[in-house]
Amino acid sequence: MKLVKLSGIFLLSSSLLFGCSNTENTSSTEKKKETNNTASKALENVSKEYREYAVGEIEEFVKATEEFTKAVKNGDLELAKTLYGPARMYYERSEPIAEVFGDLDPKIDAREGDVPDEEWGGYHRIEKGLWVDHTTSSSEQFAEQLMKDVNLLRAKVDTVEVTPDLLITGAVDLLNEVSTSKVTGEEDRYSHTDLYDFAANVEGAEKIYQLLNPELKKKDEALSNEIQTRFDAIYSLLNKQKSGDGYKLYTELTEAQVKELSQAIDALAEPLSQIGIVTEAS
């Protein structure tokens, strides 16, 4: 009888221990699930906030393009030149969204050689007319079409599905665009207003970082701080190239200054690309 009682006690103890273990495992799983749900909800809110930001930038782009194309059609060469760089900044900040429309992006932003000459229009076609031909008359038809395309972009932008993946990829792509085309001076090859585009791409990438940063900070504060430090370094370099309310011509920069900007962008792109891994809900 004593052996039976001991066996019963052992079985009861085992059951209690197993029950406790199951409770702990369930509690741990539920806690993990709750954390993941919270993170997912946070990223959903970030996507919503970014959509609002991008739509706002494109709405401003519509207004700025209207002023720019009006100056072109009115034959005001100097005003059109003045408006060109600042107007494009709204587009460059919102490119992760704007570039989703593969048919419209080339019409608005293609450079010479990107598309067949008979299809080439948009900002860079007008840029060539203003700075190479030194006239607005060769650009009036392109200004008319540009305005139609930009209005169509605004009409379509509400249909874009904004996801955390789009944001993270978009932020890195904005910086890659700077390091592959902006830094070479080939983007605005006639006006040399590349620094406007350069700054706008960095600002667009920083906006994405700022939206994701609360979640990033919870998981890797050191990475968050490193990214902010890298952004600050780029802005410090860009501020040195300010001219009034705008920027110097890209051709005024020395080779050393261009190299310094390029290195600062590369130094930011690497840690920025890690955001997706760190903020991923798992």
What count of structural domains?
1
Strand content: under 5%
Separation, N- and C-terminal Cα atoms? 52 Å
User: For the CA atoms, what is the radius of gyration?
Assistant: 26 Å
Main sheet record: 2 strands, antiparallel
Run of helices and strands: HHHHHHHHHEEHH
Task: List how many beta strands DSSP finds.
Answer: 2
The strand order across the widest sheet is 1-2
Give the name of the CATH architecture.
Up-down Bundle
Q: Residue-averaged pLDDT, rounded? A: 86
Report helical residue fraction.
over 70%
| Structural class assignment | mainly alpha
Which spans have pLDDT < 50 for at least 5 consecutive residues?
Answer: 1-18
CATH class division: Mainly Alpha
CATH homologous superfamily descriptor: M75 peptidase, HXXE motif
At the fold tier of CATH, the topology name is A middle domain of Talin 1
Describe this structure in words.
This protein is mostly helical and 282 residues long. It has one domain (41-179, 187-279): M75 peptidase, HXXE motif (A middle domain of Talin 1, Up-down Bundle), CATH 1.20.1420. It is built from 11 helices and 2 strands. The longest helix has 72 residues, at 2-73. The chain is globular, with a radius of gyration of 26 Å. The two termini are 52 Å apart. Mean pLDDT is 86; it is low at 1-18.
Q: In a nutshell, what does this entry contain?
A:
With 282 residues, the protein is mainly α. Helices cover 76% and strands 1% of the residues.
